[in-house]
DNA sequence: TTGCTATTTAGCAGGTCTTGCGAAGAAAGA
DNA sequence: TCTTTCTTCGCAAGACCTGCTAAATAGCAA
């Protein structure tokens, strides 16, 4: 994602207005490595600008995505996440804490795919699900209690209920 | 996913009851290659058994997933999809019609990942987004009108609004 | 077959995430 | 400063999914 000043110029050049809300969001997203959801970005933005609307955050994130300045990523945790990193990269998703990290994968463009059969591939998305180091350590300690895997449990332990996705923003 | 008769035995062995609703869903999902959502499976099921509840479809799909008989896939189109194919495979997602197809990828287990940095990978999911053959043909015909890419459009053209995911069930 | 009991179903309410809409407000050019 | 056009806010509503509970029923035992 471009720097706030460039985005400002781009927006104006496109006939779009540059409001304080947008400028704040430009700043908060620029080089943000936390893959925030609209909601979590909203809570940070609210701290800087009380009264800003969640609607505006969604709007601006969607606009930036349409302009190709933000990548929208869906790691299956319910809410969409936004990534200002436009490099060709993929993601590591912690199944325990929900944290998302960028990861660079060599040769993903030349994956050996059988029977493409006329399908024209545009983009390839790779998600590595697993455990981040902090969670692995925690898990190891309580490993005797872990994984009631067998049998059917009614309680939903799906990734949708991940607690407290970490935000690392200023 | 196992055959209906085996699932029936498994369910009973686990103390779960085998209802007509479940048997129908076993049959509809067994070797189903359409990657249905709960909703679309519900509409097919309703045809065979009017009055069946969407709640029951969700319940049964969730149960089968917990038992490892179904894989839950999220292609970012809003609703979760269910896949009875338990082979190690990935998915092709048509950005135009939303169709999902299984695809086998060689060597995805040994992707060259830089800086894993302590992260323990459990599963890898690969999504190839692009255009299926039918959609590519259609797109080509109307290619002069296609892709208003530049500028910001307020209208949402995201993958969430894909029309009419094809169902290929009996 | 009948009766019993734990499980399941149906249906609706409610939760989460996201978008549509319109009145009020504000950016930016004249 | 004025005017036009775009934006913001806030709420309503839509899509998807789960929690809850009364009523129904599978499956076992007699």
In short:
The structure is a homodimer of 170-residue chains. The first copy, chain A, is of the alpha+beta class. The first copy, chain A, has 5 helices and 7 strands.
Structure description:
Two copies of one chain form a homodimer. The first copy, chain A, is of the alpha+beta class and 170 residues long. Helices cover 31% and strands 18% of the residues of chain A. The first copy, chain A, has five helices and seven strands. In chain A, the strands form two sheets. Chain A has a three-stranded mixed sheet. A two-stranded antiparallel sheet of chain A has the order 1-2. In chain A, helix 2 crosses helix 3. The radius of gyration of chain A is 19 Å and the shape is globular. Chain A starts with a helix and ends in a 29-residue tail after the last helix. Chains A and B meet through helix 4, strand 5, strand 6 and strand 7 of A and helix 4, strand 5, strand 6 and strand 7 of B. Chain A binds a DNA duplex (30 and 30 nucleotides) through helix 4.
Shape of chain A: globular
Q: Give the overall average pLDDT of chain A.
A: 85
Radius of gyration of chain A: 19 Å
What portion of the residues of chain A fall into strands of 2 or more residues? 15-25%
Topology readout:
Two copies of one chain form a homodimer.
Chain A: H1 4-13, H2 20-29, H3 38-48, H4 54-66, E1 71-73, E2 81-83, E3 90-94, E4 100-103, E5 105-106, E6 112-113, E7 120-131, H5 133-141
Chain A binds a DNA duplex (30 and 30 nucleotides) through residues 12, 15-19, 21-22, 37-39, 51-56, 58-59, 62, 78-80, 156, 160.
């Amino acid at each position: 994602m471009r720097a706030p000043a460039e985005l400002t110029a781009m927006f104006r050049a496109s006939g779009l207005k540059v409001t304080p809300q947008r400028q704040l969001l430009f700043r908060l997203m620029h080089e943000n490595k936390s893959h925030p959801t609209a909601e979590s970005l909203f809570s940070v933005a609210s701290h800087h600008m009380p009264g800003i609307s969640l609607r505006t955050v969604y709007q601006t994130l969607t606009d930036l995505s349409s302009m190709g300045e933000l990548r929208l990523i869906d790691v299956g945790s319910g809410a969409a996440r936004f990534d200002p990193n436009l490099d060709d990269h993929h993601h590591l998703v912690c199944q325990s804490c929900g944290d998302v990290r960028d990861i660079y994968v060599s040769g993903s463009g030349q994956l050996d795919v059988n029977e493409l059969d006329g399908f024209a591939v545009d983009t390839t998305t790779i998600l590595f699900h697993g455990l981040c180091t902090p969670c692995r350590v925690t898990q190891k300690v309580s490993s005797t209690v872990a994984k009631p895997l067998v049998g059917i449990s009614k309680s939903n332990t799906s990734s949708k209920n991940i607690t407290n996705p970490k935000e690392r923003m200023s």
